[in-house]
Automatic annotation (TrEMBL):
This is DUF1080 domain-containing protein. Pfam families: 3keto-disac_hyd. InterPro entries: AL/BT2_dom. Residues 1-22 form the signal peptide. Residues 24-197 form the 3-keto-alpha-glucoside-1,2-lyase/3-keto-2-hydroxy-glucal hydratase domain. Keywords: Signal. It comes from Aureibaculum flavum.
């Protein structure tokens, strides 16, 4: 009886472990842009195992979006800014050309609200982090962003520190892709790695 009980517990643990691993997916393989779609003429490339976004000659907005949609999820990504470094991570978004509908978690130079939420072609800034939290950004070094989107609630963390929590009905009703952005204006370069999503 004791052996059967122990075996049952072991099998349950293995099942839960497998189920958990199936929900977690690496979105970037370190080799190419498989699983992503390019929008616009800005530059997206893989160099030395890193995803690199860089302004092109048009100096326009550009996006790299997943080919799948994600409703409720937790995303972690490492980024390093070079030059201007104005970028972002969109969620529950749809893109046509270089016009995007959705919400952006800001990735920007110091004092420009990294971790805040901006609604493109809509209401603009929905929430900005408290000013003192700007010190959590390590410009020119690797940073880790975590984004949790469940129902109508969005929470962001930068290097382990919670930046914002937002509840919004419009966000709650939406569904769409995850997308990385190059801001317009030129002179932008950002490196990305360890892009992992867990469906909730």
């Amino acid at each position: 009886m004791h052996i059967k009980l122990s075996l049952g517990i072991l099998l349950s643990i293995l099942f839960l472990s497998c189920a958990s691993s199936q929900k977690t997916t690496s979105l970037f393989n370190g080799k190419d842009l498989a699983g992503w779609e390019v929008y616009g003429t800005e530059k997206w490339a893989v160099k030395d195992g890193l995803l690199v976004c860089e302004s092109g000659p048009d100096k326009n907005y550009g996006y790299l979006a997943t080919d799948k949609v994600y409703k409720n999820f937790e995303l972690t990504v490492d980024f390093k800014q070079s030059a201007n470094g104005n970028s972002g991570v969109f969620f529950r978004s749809s893109i046509e050309g270089t016009k995007i509908a959705g919400w952006q978690v800001e990735v920007a130079p110091p004092k420009h609200d990294t971790g805040g939420i901006y609604e493109s072609y809509g209401r603009g800034w929905l929430i900005k982090p408290d000013t003192e939290k700007d010190k959590n950004l390590k410009f020119g070094e690797w940073n880790t962003m975590k984004i949790r989107v469940v129902g109508n609630t969005v929470t962001t963390w930068l290097n382990g520190i919670q930046m914002i929590e937002l509840r919004d009905e419009k966000i709650g009703e939406a569904n769409g892709k995850i997308a990385l952005q190059i801001h317009d204006g030129g002179g932008i370069k950002v490196f990305w790695k360890n892009i992992v999503v867990t469906k909730i």
